[in-house]
Amino acid sequence: MGYVKQRTSHRMYLLVFILAFVFSLFSVVYVHYYTLVVPLKQGSPSFVIKQDVDASRSYTSAASSASLMHSIANKKESFQRSTDDLSYSGKSIPLMDFKDLQKRKKRFLLLVTVGSAPQRFDRRQAIRDTWWKFCHEKKVKCVFFTDGITKNQTLLTLLLQEKNRYKDLELQPLPSGVQFGQRFLNSIKWATAKFDFKYFLKLDDDYFVCLKRLLFELPSRPKRNLVWGSFHCEFGISWADEAFVIFSADMIRKFLMQDKKKMLCHPFADQQFSIWMKHMTKLYFHDTRLHHDPPASFTPEFKEMKNLCDSYIGIHGTYVEEMRKFAKVANDGAKETVETVPKFSSFCPFKDFDYRKFSPKYYFRPKPCIQNPTWKNSTFTGREDEHILRQDDL
């Protein structure tokens, strides 16, 4: 009997030791690798950084600690890959993927891309209710881009609902912040992978666009080397404002043909693509029909103006209330005449660009895009919020 008790006692000790070892092993694994999967609240999707991988299956089908370790190792490897591999499957966050559709690409005259902060649903909805309605024409495709990586689970849920409902929202593999250059790079990579387009329009979400007028005159515009927007002219330099800029398709291809190891990124998209174009052949079109500054919503002359699209082709600083007001009095459509592209020298004698000439607020050294760079002390307050802050100080 004593021998039986002793043997049972040894078995108990052995069992406790095995359980303790297994628990310790899983604890180490969890602590070391838990950042590879960012869980959402119960019932929500999970964030997985790998194409064609379903995290839930990987974990539930693991029959042993060895298979579990192998699965986690695969996820660690995929996490270290470039953003080109960011995708989704199963119940994961549907970040934009960059898989090239090749011969299955749909063709459009114009691809419209609108950058919008995740919380700016009101602006996106105001656009959908107004000039976005003309996006359903066969020759144009319109897409919103916003940041898809966020710790705010309520906001993420709302974004997923919006994406599923309207089918016009793409989630960037980026967190919020001053990363306008990297957002632009992602958008043109995604666009060229998914569509065959003649012109690419980059927009801010506070721009009212006379889209029907724009579509009418696009076929008569230059088809190569075109950079069309509202330009800034300072001593020695000039650049197109990033709030509204149209590139011909060949310019987008030139951007993406740069050596990936040498391609430079910048917090601000307009400085970034101006750096890229420094030694490229380009045709600048400074369009005075683009109202840039001050914001139209705070400009008295726009309050009672009728037939806006007779005088303008785009109006910057148009916020939610004015977006709907302008749509009612826009008179958008084809106009009788299409003006020729004026010589850029009549507006500005300079076509060079140098980021070093910017004021401290906008001065940042460019860094290799391949490093997925960030910049310290880079914050950006939109013009609407700046106006509100100034009014509060009065």
Automatic annotation (TrEMBL):
<dbReference type="GO" id="GO:0006493">
    <property type="term" value="P:protein O-linked glycosylation"/>
</dbReference>
<keyword id="KW-0472">Membrane</keyword>
<keyword id="KW-0812">Transmembrane</keyword>
<protein>
    <recommendedName>
        <fullName>Hexosyltransferase</fullName>
        <ecNumber>2.4.1.-</ecNumber>
    </recommendedName>
</protein>
<keyword id="KW-0328">Glycosyltransferase</keyword>
<feature type="transmembrane region" description="Helical">
    <location>
        <begin position="12"/>
        <end position="33"/>
    </location>
</feature>
<keyword id="KW-0333">Golgi apparatus</keyword>
<keyword id="KW-1133">Transmembrane helix</keyword>
<dbReference type="GO" id="GO:0006024">
    <property type="term" value="P:glycosaminoglycan biosynthetic process"/>
</dbReference>
<dbReference type="GO" id="GO:0000139">
    <property type="term" value="C:Golgi membrane"/>
</dbReference>
<keyword id="KW-0735">Signal-anchor</keyword>
<dbReference type="InterPro" id="IPR002659">
    <property type="entry name" value="Glyco_trans_31"/>
</dbReference>
<comment type="similarity">
    <text>Belongs to the glycosyltransferase 31 family.</text>
</comment>
<dbReference type="Pfam" id="PF01762">
    <property type="entry name" value="Galactosyl_T"/>
</dbReference>
<dbReference type="GO" id="GO:0047220">
    <property type="term" value="F:galactosylxylosylprotein 3-beta-galactosyltransferase activity"/>
</dbReference>
<keyword id="KW-0808">Transferase</keyword>
